[in-house]
Specification:
621 residues, alpha/beta, 9-stranded antiparallel β-sheet, 8-stranded parallel barrel, 25 strands, 22% helix, 19% strand
């Protein structure tokens, strides 16, 4: 159901119409039922992939970029992905099992800067023309809703783009950055023009910052660039006056969110986008850099507006890079964030366990419901499970999960089963674009002979999927939308089980998690070590779904796996819902008659599993 919206963006908040355009699509009852897919508009699709060859993983050399230097430079610039391109890939995403699209910021950036990632906003009330139009975004949301899918937009209210210059107090010159100081605020030299010059007053809509209300210098802290990203030992890390809450994020200009009128204006901006696009939630950027009080004011305003128009479960999920702060931003009363991205500890531990580099308990202990954080994860409502994302802020190096896996015989299965683990655990799972094609982006692609400086390393985990000049695996001119890729097929097969509307699907999405003890070579049951078969279950009332994963990447492994004896007495059978070594046809259409016998083993009900390297199986009644 297409809805036509006004093409012209208002220049001021006073002219921003907050009445919904067209239908208001209802929120999902429970966000645990969704599978998120994160993408960067510039890097995902331009809608013209049919004009280019598809990447051949068997002959990757034929697609290699002709110039390493040009490929690297392209990674720092806009590459040409569009909102229309995203819409053209809804079949691809829905067949993968995705139910919710998480779109990185599509807001208008400075035309004189290459902030392709979308976090340097110049006009908060418009879409960047390099991505498309406001109508394109509304069309995408409407098309997703017509399929029963949802759309989450990435929003930033901590800072704006590099839209004005500081005045150097020594020589009066314009400065893009200044070192942090608490007070007094630095003076403003002028607004940034389309040519990157300092001018006293914005002349065109591309100068300075919009809406016009944001052209008030007193709305910014003007404290210079953050130098200390953590609180000092004597500071309260939740205090709004700590440096990392008042300083600029490099050249991005920090708003003074302790002023009520500033936070109200920023909330109104994003209420406007709900009215205009009918989106279903926001991923909120840089929450750590916002005080808990300001966060609550913003979230309360957005929730209140969304509920007033009929979106009763509008999702606000925050990016918070310090787990110790979560309790200050999250609650069960709907006044703060609904959920946080689980990006601090869990991604590295999940990666290490799936690759057989760590004892499984190191990851699964995060779901120990005798702890507050574990109980939160067990419930699943309050956290989004992340493996890869566009920042990889928790990783020692910028690298995707599939990095350095070339020598593994089942590398594509291993990449699929990292996602498969997230799909079969409590929480709202998120897939980062390209993970289903086993993208291996990492900072070792940086050639210091070409660029001696260690700069803009994030680019290597933000590859082009559609055939741009900065293609994945060092390519250009080929696309990666391959629905027959081994990783894609296995992720889709597991997602299909999670998305089932019967008791099995609901058990995976809402059940209680248990790490299962295993027995190897007739030894007593115990939590397995690194590189062995690890097993876990989701249990809901009288239903159990059991997963087993071989964490050894090179060798076959087997084990006897504990299952619930009250649900699976010895002599009963469990049905195989998924097995990673099925044929492509079986992955698409699983056999219904394959079963495994439940045995009485060491006084327990247990099933015998034997899995190939990086193999996985899912069983239920």
């Amino acid at each position: 159901m297409a809805t036509t919206i006004e093409s012209h963006a208002p220049g001021s908040l006073a002219k921003a119409d907050l009445h919904p355009r067209g239908r208001v699509y209802p929120s999902p009852v429970n966000w645990n039922d969704q599978i998120l897919y994160q993408l960067l508009p510039d890097r995902f699709s331009d809608g013209r992939e049919m004009q280019r060859p598809m990447f051949d993983r068997h002959q990757p050399e034929q697609h290699q970029a002709s110039s390493r230097g040009s490929w690297m430079t392209a990674g720092t610039r806009f590459n040409g992905g569009t909102i229309k391109g995203i819409e053209s890939k809804l079949d691809y995403l829905q067949n993968l099992g995705v139910t919710t699209i998480w779109i990185n910021p599509p807001w208008k950036q400075r035309i004189d800067l290459q902030t392709y990632h979308g976090y340097g906003i110049q006009d908060f009330l418009d879409i960047d023309p390099r991505f498309g139009t406001r109508q394109d975004l509304r069309d995408l949301v409407d098309a997703a809703h017509d399929r029963g899918m949802y759309v989450i937009l990435d929003v930033i209210y901590n800072h704006s783009g590099s839209n004005w210059f500081y005045r150097d107090e020594l020589d009066g010159s314009p400065r893009a950055t200044m070192p942090y100081r608490f007070s007094p605020p630095y003076p403003l030299h002028g607004w940034r023009s389309t040519q990157g010059d300092s001018i006293p007053t914005p002349v065109t809509r591309d100068d300075g910052v919009f809406p016009i209300e944001f052209q008030n210098p007193e709305w910014y802290n003007r404290a210079g660039m953050i130098l200390d990203w953590e609180a000092k030992g004597w500071e309260d890390p939740m205090n709004p006056m700590v440096q990392f809450r008042r300083g600029d994020f490099f050249e991005l200009r920090d708003f003074d969110l302790e002023k009520a009128e500033v936070i109200a204006a920023l909330a109104q901006v994003f209420e406007y986008w709900i009215a205009l696009t009918d989106c279903d939630g926001f991923r909120v950027d840089a929450v750590k850099h916002v005080s808990p009080a300001a966060s609550r004011q913003f979230c309360d305003a957005i929730h209140g507006y969304a509920q007033s128009i009929g979106k009763d479960n509008f999702l606000l999920v925050g990016e918070l890079t310090d787990d110790s702060m979560v309790r200050g931003y999250l609650d069960i009363f709907g006044r703060k964030l609904d959920a946080v991205l689980d990006i601090v500890i869990a991604p590295n531990r999940l990666t290490s366990v799936v690759k057989g580099l760590a004892n499984p308990w190191e990851f699964f202990c995060l779901y120990d419901d005798t702890t507050l954080a574990g109980g939160q994860r067990q419930l699943g409502t309050y956290h989004v499970t992340v493996i890869d994302d566009h920042d990889m802020s928790s990783r020692p190096q910028k690298e995707r999960f599939a990095t350095h896996s070339e020598g593994l015989p089942q590398r594509y299965e291993q990449a699929a089963h990292a996602i498969g683990l997230a799909l079969t655990m409590p929480g709202i799972p998120s897939i980062y674009y390209g993970a289903e094609q086993a993208f291996d982006g990492n900072q070792t692609y940086h050639d210091y002979r070409v660029e001696p400086k260690h700069e803009f390393i994030d680019r290597y985990i933000r590859e082009c999927m559609f055939g741009g000049k900065f293609g994945a695996f060092g390519t250009e001119g080929c696309h990666f939308f391959n629905p027959t890729h081994p990783t894609y097929l296995r992720v889709a097969a597991i997602a299909r089980i999670r998305n089932r509307q019967d008791c099995i699907g609901k058990t995976l999405r809402r059940g209680h998690h248990y790490l299962r003890e295993t027995s190897i070579m007739d030894r007593p049951f115990a939590v397995p070590g690194a590189g062995e078969v690890v097993a876990w279950s989701q249990v809901l009332y009288i239903h159990e779904v059991m997963m087993a994963l071989n964490t050894h990447g090179l060798e076959q492994r087997g084990a006897m796996v504990t299952v619930d004896r009250s649900l699976h007495p010895p002599g009963s059978t469990m049905t195989v819902l998924y097995r990673s070594d099925w044929s492509d046809d079986q992955l698409r259409q699983p056999p219904e008659s394959e079963t495994v016998l439940v045995e009485d083993y060491q006084g327990r009900s247990a099933v015998r599993v034997t899995l190939p390297p990086s193999g996985m199986v899912i069983l239920s009644r």
